[in-house]
Design goal:
Elements lengths: L38 H14 L8 H6 L6 E2 L8 H22 L4 E13 L1 E11 L5 E11 L8 E8 L4
Antiparallel strand pairs: 1-2, 2-3, 3-4, 4-5
Protein name: Cystatin domain-containing protein
GO molecular function, one term: cysteine-type endopeptidase inhibitor activity
Keywords: Protease inhibitor, Thiol protease inhibitor
């Protein structure tokens, strides 16, 4: 009886799921050479994604340049956004606050986007931090996680995962 051939091990690469948790619990040094991303930066990035659920992360340009997939990317200053990006982010924030109002019996009005991050998927998952005004005039900071995807077969490719008032640290 011949010995079974062992399956090849899965490649070890950095991967962050949609909730920002590390899927391959691997030491950064195992999958990065010295001329690639600094392992300390990668670990710092992963911790920020996990702690903030993708909303509050620094711009780790070397990570983005090397990996550029399966990661949450800051969109940068709004004045650098293309018109399409501006329309998508602002439009998605407005839809998110409308859904929040409907679900919570409130009447917040969208004011402005503070910042946005995104994941590239079959479309985008946006992590939008924005301001909204309450009926009494008070301003609250909100966070919305929104999928704005590529429609297919007549199906909707849009989903608001959640919209919430940002927890103050």
């Amino acid at each position: 009886m011949a010995d079974a051939v062992p399956a090849e091990p899965e490649p070890k690469r950095p991967k962050v799921d949609q909730e920002g948790s590390k899927q391959n619990d691997v030491d950064a040094k195992e999958y990065m050479s010295e001329d690639e991303i600094d392992p300390a930066d990668w670990i710092k990035y992963l911790k920020q994604v996990k702690a903030s659920e993708g909303f509050d992360i620094d711009d780790f340009a070397p990570i983005i340049a090397e990996v550029a997939y399966d990661i949450t990317i800051p969109m940068g200053p709004m004045e650098t956004w293309e018109d399409k990006e501006h329309e998508m982010v602002f439009g998605n924030a407005k839809k998110a606050i409308a859904k929040f109002n409907e679900e919570n019996g409130t009447n917040y009005e969208f004011v402005d986007v503070v910042k946005a991050n995104y994941d590239i998927v079959a479309g985008y998952i946006f992590y939008i931090t924005f301001l909204a005004k309450a009926a009494d005039g008070g301003i609250e900071t909100f966070q919305a996680k929104v999928y704005d995807g590529i429609p297919g077969d007549g199906e909707s490719a849009f989903e608001i995962y959640f919209c919430r008032i940002k927890v103050k640290n």
